[in-house]
Amino acid sequence: MQMKKGPLSIETATDADAAEILALQKLAYATEAELYGDWSLPPLLQTLEQIQAEFASHVFLKARQDGAIAGSVRGLMQGHTCLVGRLIVHPRARRQGLATSLMAEIEARFALAQRFELFTGHKSAGNLRLYQGLGYREFERRPVKEGLVLVFLEKTKK
After folding, report:
1. Which helix (H) or strand (E) holds 155?
2. What is the mean pLDDT of each run of 10 residues along the chain (158 residues)?
3. Is 102 exposed, middle or buried (0-12, 13-18, 19+ CB in 10 A)?
4. DSSP per position, 100-112
């Protein structure tokens, strides 16, 4: 069952959105936990206080559809690189272009960045396909624990 496709808006999230973003994050990462057989992934363990603290250093975007937050992404500038993190989309809103729209907007918000960097798990074929389709290229694989290798991807400005 897909979400009803109403008007989509992408805007800056505030710490008032933290609880809704955290709930969506836990829902979205449940599929990753199932894929890896690991319910201790950091996005699933993050607390409300931790995500609220991130608002001080990160730019959070939220995608609203039919009044609810259907997706989110966050970015942090570090030197000339924008570190992109926790791109999430409600499971019923997937494969409708939301992730692509959120990525385009986070890149636009960090227009001065010379490079964008993100990571995903090695078994997350859909994520890897999405990022590669958006021009990201793998530059490193980092084993984290048994059964989980993080794949780091980057996109540089030409």
Report:
1. strand 148-156
2. 63 96 96 93 96 96 92 97 97 90 97 97 95 97 92 93
3. buried
4. HHHHHHHHHHTTT
pTM over 0.85: yes
What lies within 8 Å, CB to CB, of 86 at 6+ separation is 25, 43, 72, 73, 74
**Of 30, 14, 17, which Cα lies nearest the Cα of 92?**
30
- Nearest C-alpha neighbor of 74 from the set 53, 92, 91: 53
Length of the chain as a residue count: 158
What is the strand order of the sheet 59-65 is part of?
8-12, 59-65, 68-78, 81-89, 115-121, 148-156, 137-145
The hierarchical CATH code for the domain 8-156 is 3.40.630.30
